[in-house]
Amino acid sequence: MLKVWIAAQDPRLANDMADVVRIFYGQINYTVTDASPVPGPDEMLLILREERTDGLVDVTVRAEGAVSGEARQRCADCPDALEFKRRRKRAVKLAVYALMKHATGVQPPWGALTGIRPTRLVYQRMEAGETLSGALDWVRDTFDVTPAKAELLGQIVSVQRALPPPSPRQVELYVGIPFCVSRCTYCSFSSGEIGNGALVDPYVTALLDEIAGVRELLDARGLTVSTVYIGGGTPTALPAPALRRVLEALVPWTQGKEFTVEAGRPDTIDREKLRIMQSVGVTRISINPQTFHDPTLERIGRRHTSAQTLQAYALARSLGFDDINMDLIAGLPGEDLAIFLSSLDQARSLRPDSLTVHSLAIKHASALHLYGVPLPDGRMTAGMMDAAAACAHGMGLRPYYMYRQKYMAGALENVAYALPGRECLYNVRMMEETGHIIALGAGGISKRVAPTGGKIVRAPNVGDIAEYIRRVGEMVQRKRDLWSVKDFDMSLEPPPDQER
Ligand code: SF4
Q1: pTM of the full predicted structure?
Q2: What is the distance in A from the centroid of ligand 1 to the CA of 191?
Q3: Burial 24-57, CB ≥16 within 10 A → b, else e
Q4: How many domains does the chain have?
Q5: Residue from 193, 194, 230, 234 to probe ligand 1 pocket by mutation (most atoms less than 8 Å from CB)
Q6: Which domain range does residue 71 map to?
Q7: Which of 176, 312, 371, 420 could crosslink 441 through cysteines, CB 3.0-4.6 Å?
């Protein structure tokens, strides 16, 4: 792993600089220094200097050690502190990017972009009066994004703009079930193995308390529910009676609404659970193969086979589920393009209504050696993502949301494709942060969104299951507090006759 020393007059910029280095090197180990260490062969020293002259700021970044070179950027000084912070940060990142690109000869697909939501930049430009194509040109030219990725952004924004917008008086409801039947080795969620199930009933009881508290809150604030999404974890890891308790408690909110259950692991799906979901009006489920290659499934700790995926899918279709998503992962350990293509072929033959393709993100380097086999390199994973895009296109699916994470293979992205009309509104509103999210259960993060300006206030639930059970009343109070924030957006406040 590359060791990076960062020397900056303002150390608050070190993290942004490190983010750009990660585009090229994946995992790095960085330290901020005010000395001038002499970097060893596997080390790099990045030195940032800034000079103000005549209303301009000159940013110079110099690298020594494993990478050497220098790059400059200039930005206009500005009396608006927030705007200046933004310009300066961008100049620093672009200087580091130019240096790294020159030194490595690598063209990253998303150029200098390090954020989770590249669509955000497009929307910001459009809100300022630019056309979609003008906004895409700006993103491509400013950040050195490849034309293919700029086109992907354009397709996604076009699809999203045709979808029903969220209403300021509605919320998207998320319910987290933090249990799984085994832990996937690449998992970065705070879910736990269900084990002997001892925590299931206390968890469900706490969740029902939180549901009751949230119902009072929504009634008091005059808010209604727009979409419901049960995720995790693996909601279908719950035994059937527990799953029924949770789903039935949501019924007052779900009728006629988009209602998704992530039935993620095929080995947790059976006829009884599917019937329960049908009885409460679930409209959309996700059955996630991740790969149809059994040796990979075993390697990543999924503990199910591709035959089980096929059975679960056939069963759900036979019972009448007509909106099914499938997730695949590009860049799994030991897989090459041929294996990934065969998974795509299998998915194509099943004709899911939506297909979500992730590129593997591994947060902790220590997990890498759990696999015992090499990971595909970034270029191969990029080829897999291109093949997935072509496959989805051939299936009549359109890309409708995307996001990026740190530590993704090849600095790529996750893309969801759907048949027209099968786009999951919850996913779009949650990912683009355009809808209020009320998140119940351990680890859920509720968000209240201002209608303009992109301001968001958050209220997280605790992630630890036992803590959540113990402190569920406090989790409800956090949501009450979130909707009591004053001077945030008065139009969100309910009419006086609805106050209690
Ligand atoms: S199914 Fe999902 S949440 Fe559960 S362990 Fe695997 S990656 Fe994590």
Answers
A1: 0.92
A2: 7
A3: bbbebebebbeeeeebeeebbbbbbebeeeeeeb
A4: 3
A5: 234
A6: 1-106
A7: 176
